[in-house]
Amino acid sequence: MCESPVYASRLALFTIISLCSFVFSLYYWQSFYEYSHEIIKPDDNGLRASVQNGPHTNQPNILLIITDDQGYNDIGYNSFYGIQTPVIDKLANEGLILDNYYVQPICTPTRGQLYSGVHEIHTGLYTVIRPGHRVGLPLNFPTIAGKLKEAGYSTHLVGKWHLGYYTKRHLPTRRGFDSFFGLLNGHSNHFNYTVAQSYDLHEGENNADMAKYKGRYSTHLFAEKAINIINNHHGKNPLFLVVSFTAPHEPLQVPEKYKLMYENLLINTTPEKQTYAGMISCVDEAVGNITEAFKRKGFWNNTVMIYTSDNGATGRMPNSNYPLRGHKGNVFEGGIKVPSFVHSNLMKTNVKGTISKELLHVTDWFPTLAGLGQANINDIKQLYGYDMRDTIFEGKKSPRTEIVHVINPERVQEGEPAYNNTFDSRIKSALRQGDWKLLTNPSEKHEDTLFLFNIKDDPREKHDLSQVHPHIVKKMLDRLEHHRRTAVPPLNYVRDERCRPALHNNFWVPWL
Question: Is 162 a catalytic residue?
Answer without folding.
Answer: yes
